[in-house]
Amino acid sequence: MKYKALFIIFALFFFISAAYHLVAVFVSVNESPVWRNLLFVGINAFTGYFLLKRPRWFIWFFILLMFQQLYSHGSDLINAWNSQHRIDWMSLMVILVMPAIYIFLLIDRTAKQN
């Protein structure tokens, strides 16, 4: 597959994010409750694994995750700007990367159909 290395990089982003959320379970690194960090340990590990495998159904899961992340991190980005006049760089990165991953998933799915 033409974009195999790109999907490996995307998967690594998710595995790193899973590790971040795992650390957040034990050390206060964000404002999320422990249960939410635990949830995202699983979601991010699951997403990283299936970005490497890319079964046909995965795109539907990813669409739901993408919209949740755009809403959540979009809200964080707006709140950081409105309350502190700062850019939440992590949220900005998520907002930019998630749609890009979705586009490459669409390209990959179309290529597998042909």
What tags apply to this protein structure?
114 residues, mainly alpha, globular
Number of strands: 0
- Give the structural class: mainly alpha
Strand content: under 5%
Biggest sheet layout: none
- End-to-end Cα distance: 13 Å
Overall pLDDT: 95
Order of helices and strands: HHHH
Residue windows where pLDDT falls under 50 for at least 5 positions = none
Would you write up a description of this structure?
Helices cover 83% and strands 0% of the residues. It is mostly helical and 114 residues long. The protein has one domain (4-113). Helix 1 (4-26) runs antiparallel to helix 2 and helix 3 runs antiparallel to helix 4 (89-113). The two termini are 13 Å apart. The mean pLDDT is 95.
Give a concise summary.
By secondary structure, the protein is mostly helical.
Give the SSE map.
Elements: H1 4-26, H2 34-53, H3 58-84, H4 89-113
